[in-house]
Every structure is written in structure tokens, then in C-alpha cells.
Amino acid sequence: MSDSDSHGRSPAPQQAASPHPLDLNLLRTFLAVYRSGSFTGAAQLLGLSQPTVTTQMRTLERQTGRELFERLPRGVAPTAVAGELAARVAPGLDLLAAVAGPDPSAERAAEPVHLAGPAEFLSTWVLPTLAPLVADGARLRVATGLTDPLLDELRAGRHDLVISTLRPRGRTLSAVPLVDEEFVLVAAPTWAERLKEPLAVEGPSVLHPVPLVTYAEDLPIARRYWRHVFGRRLSCAAALTVPDLRGVKAAVVAGAGFTVLPAYLCAGELASGALVLLHEPEDPPINTSFLVQRPGVPDNPDVVRVRDHLLRAARQ
Predict the structure, then answer these.
(1) For residues 49 and 37, what is the distance between their CA atoms, to the nearest angstrom?
(2) Per-residue DSSP letters for 277-297?
(3) Which of the listed residues 68, 91, 108 is the one where a domain comes to its end?
(4) Which domain holds residue 168?
(5) Which helix (H) or strand (E) segment is 133 a member of?
(6) Each residue of 236-288: pLDDT tens digit?
């Protein structure tokens, strides 16, 4: 834990590990922090106060002489030492817990986390990122949809977390930036051979006769690209609309025309040559996605666990 405490004191310097056996209660709290990803989540799991958990972790760090957790804006990140300690103590503590009988807090921890967001981003990045938590016992219920309806449902209590393509207004929801999405103008190689050089010389008007494949009739992503990169209004109509960017990508890979996509969604196709960048601006348009929840501490500690895991993964 790298931060100073509430009285301004810095954590005690590292010292030689205590020769005495470590307290089982401290180890139990340590494992709860390690698995939940936050002191608050561990406190809810164990029925303790958050200050008690903080004090116990400082005590354990003094006893081991090593830093176990790094403070983050949301939650904590285990150090390498914490990972080694968890691997050593988890089997024994889990066996003791099984012998002692079910813990009522385990039922709370097993409640599903209701997560919602754009289908493409959830499928491509979020769900693979959360796979280790699911393998470790977390339960997820995932919904997809457009940002505004999902935020309304979050306010109504239908979701725990929403990945939003915009920062919600007002104070009824709490939002933190998650990732930045860069938009790219792409087409299949057969189109790129005909369009890339004329586009660089003559400008975007050379694309007007080419079929445009897009997400919706009002061309939301393409219009933004045109305005940001070319400084003008996009005047051509869509030849094909698909309400899923993965479908847009599939059609363009097959040669239907050109489109604008988030770079994360077509990175593999660009690397393989199935898609080609038609234009490479110095300042590409970027959209920030936000991780949104209702203010306050969630009743389900796995909500904190999922949230902090996503934020850590995004920073990496």
C-alpha cells in the first residue's frame, strides 16, 4: 500500500519478516482483499469495517516486511509478493473454510454482476478480459444495447455496471474513463488499390461513388470521422446498414465497400491484410468509453471486483 494513512503518516519501512507464525485472521483478510480487489469488497465479504481491513493489512505488511498491495484510484492491485503469498495460503484457508461450513457471505459473493454495454466491445475486449474472474467463481449476466437506454436501465437498478460511449450528465451516476477508441477508415484490398492514392490527392470526394457500409442510417461514426479528419460534412448515403459493427466489418472484408470502424475491432484484419487503411491522419478521431455505476458502495462485492479488474486491464 503506497499511500499515507489518514493522519499523514507513511507506511512503516520494510523490515525483516517476523519469525513468528502469521495470524490466520490476518491471512483470511488478506485473501479476501486479494480476491475482491479492494479493501471495501473484502470488508463486505468478511462482515468487517473497511478501516479494520486496512489496519489488518498494515499489520500483515509489518509482519512480513513486504508491501502486499498497491493503492489505486479504485481498489488495490496485488504486488508480486502478494501473489506468492496467496498461492501459499489459499489452499489451506479454503480447506479450513470448507471444514467450518458455508459462510453466509459466500452467498452474497455469488450473486451475479449485471454488466451491460455495446455488443461489439463487450464481445471483443470485455468478456475475454473478465474470463479469469469467471473461472475464479464470479458470475456475470451480460446485456447489450445502445448507451442512452442502458444508462436509464442502470438508474432504474437493472444493471450494476454499464460501459458507456459517453459520460453521463448529472450526479445520479458515477463514471470513470475506461479506454479510448481510435476510428479508422478501411476497405478490402481490392477497393484500397483503387482508392487510397486518389483519396490522398483529391480528397474524400473520390469515395462518394463507392458503397458505404455503416452501423445506422444516420452514419454516426462515419459522420464524426469526416468532420474531424476532413473538416467537412459527409454527404453520401449508406449502401448497407448493419446494427452490429462486427457485421459491418464482415461485409467490408467481403468487398461490399468502405467503412469507419474502431481500431480495436479490426486490428486482426489490418494485420492480416484482409482490410487496408485508406487514410492515416496524424490526428485520428478518438472516442472515450466510460465505466458507469450508481454512486455508493455496491451490495455485491463482486461488482467492485469486476469494476477494478476492468480498470486495471485498461491501464495495462
Answers:
(1) 16
(2) ES---SS--EEEEEEEE-SS-
(3) 108
(4) 110-173+294-315
(5) helix 127-135
(6) 899 999 999 999 999 999 999 999 999 999 999 999 999 999 999 999 999 99
Q: What is the DSSP string of 71-109?
A: E-SSSEEE-HHHHHHHHHHHHHHHHHHHHH---HHHHHH
What is the C-alpha R_g of the chain?
25
Burial of 127 (0-12, 13-18, 19+ CB in 10 A): middle
11 in a domain, yes or no?
Answer: no
Q: Which residues contact 84 (CB under 8 A, 6 or more apart)?
A: none
Q: What is the pLDDT of residues 202-224, one digit of tens each?
A: 999 999 999 999 999 999 899 99
Is residue 78 within 8 Å of residue 86, measured between CB atoms? yes
Do 279 and 146 fall within a single domain?
no
Determine phi and psi for 286, rounding to 5 degrees. Answer: -130, 140
pLDDT score for 110: 58
Which residue is it, cell 473538416? 231
| Cα torsion angle, 264, 270, 274, 278, sign | positive
**Between helices 301-315 and 24-36, what is the axis angle to 10°?**
60
